[in-house]
Fold:
Amino acid sequence: MMAKGVLLGLWVTLCSVQPYTRSVYAQSVGVPRYIQPADTHYRAIFGFGGNAGLGSLTPATYIGNASFEMGISIFSGGFVTSSSVTTALPRRSYSEFDLLYGIALDEIFSHYERPADNFHASLSTGISFDLYQERWRRFGRSQTPNLLFPPNTFEYSFGIPIQVQVVYEPLRYAGIGAVLFANFSGFTPSLGGAIVIEARY
Structure:
C-alpha cells in the first residue's frame, strides 16, 4: 500500500508540471526572429549625352534623376530632354518625364592599404509622359509674314522607359558614371546614353 501511495504521488506531480513546461516552450518558440533593417540610400544624378534613337532630329541630351533605394529595390523619378543642335528650321525638341522601379546592386571592393572602391548599378523600367515639338521662327508683322511659316506642332504620348545606371563612387557623397536609356512610345524610339555625376546620401 505504501508503494502504491508513493507512485500515485509521483504521477500527480508529473501531471501538474507538464502544462507549465509546455507553456514555457510555446512562449520561447513564439519569439519573433530578428530581421536586420535594409540599407537605404538617396541619390541624384545629372548628366549630358546623346540621343541616337531620334537621330539627327534631337541629338543633344540632358538627363536628371532622383532615386530612393531600399535593399535591392530602387524607386526613381526623372527626365530626359533632347534638342536639335543646328540653327535650321524647324527647331525640334523631345522631353520625357519618367517614374521608374527597378533592382539595384551595390558592391564594395576592398584593397590592401588603400580605401575600398564602391560601385552602384541598377536596372529600372516604368511609365513616362513624352512630348515632341517642332517650332518655326516667327517674325513681326513689319518683317516676314507669319503665313510663310508652317504652324508649330506639339505632340504627346505615353511610353515605357528603360534605364541602366553604372556609377563608380570613390567619394563618400559623390560619384561618376554612365546611364543608358531607351523609351518606346508613339514617337520614334528614344535610345541613347549620358555621362553623369552623382550626389548620394
